[in-house]
Amino acid sequence: MAKIKVTKVKVAPAPARVAAFHNGVDAETRAADYLAARGYEIAARRFKTRFGEIDLIARLGSLVAFIEVKARAKLDDAAYAVTLRQQKRIINAAQIWLASHPNCAASDLRFDALLIAPNAQPRHLIAAFDASE
User: End-to-end CA distance of the chain, in Å?
Assistant: First the structure.
């Protein structure tokens, strides 16, 4: 019996998906610039684990902030986009980041959201959620 050669065809991502990715990266850059202007040091961007991703990890003195960046047409819409499921994923990813950064074990920890919308100043929601269940 003859072997059949199977060729995989790469399909380009949908244009809307590509645009959403670029909008997300732009929002994260805007958020990082906003935080840096306020004295934060960006320790990591787009920290990925098998549990999920943390958009920004920033330090300010003894504080480590895990920050979810949300970009929407309106700031209020962005505020409602941080779901409970995302919060759990971010908390799990934060535990992995902390395990690989033992020097931060004694740091104050916080989970923030930074909301981005066109023609509006970013809105930083300090302690937007916490790790308690």
Answer: 59
20-30 residue pLDDT tens: 777 888 999 99
Q: What is the distance between the alpha carbons of residues 87 and 130, in angstroms, rounded to a whole number?
A: 8
Q: What is the pLDDT of residues 70-112, one digit of tens each?
A: 999 988 888 888 889 999 999 999 999 999 999 987 899 999 9
Q: What angle do CA 126, 124, 109 make, to 5 degrees?
A: 35
| Residue ranges per structural domain of the chain | 15-129
* Nearest by Cα to 113 from 73, 89, 80: 80
d(CA 37, CA 56): 15
CATH architecture of the region 15-129: 3-Layer(aba) Sandwich (3.40)
Kindly report the pTM of this predicted structure. Answer: 0.85
Neighbours of 42 (CB within 10 A): 16
- CA-wise closest residue to 112 among 82, 132, 76: 82
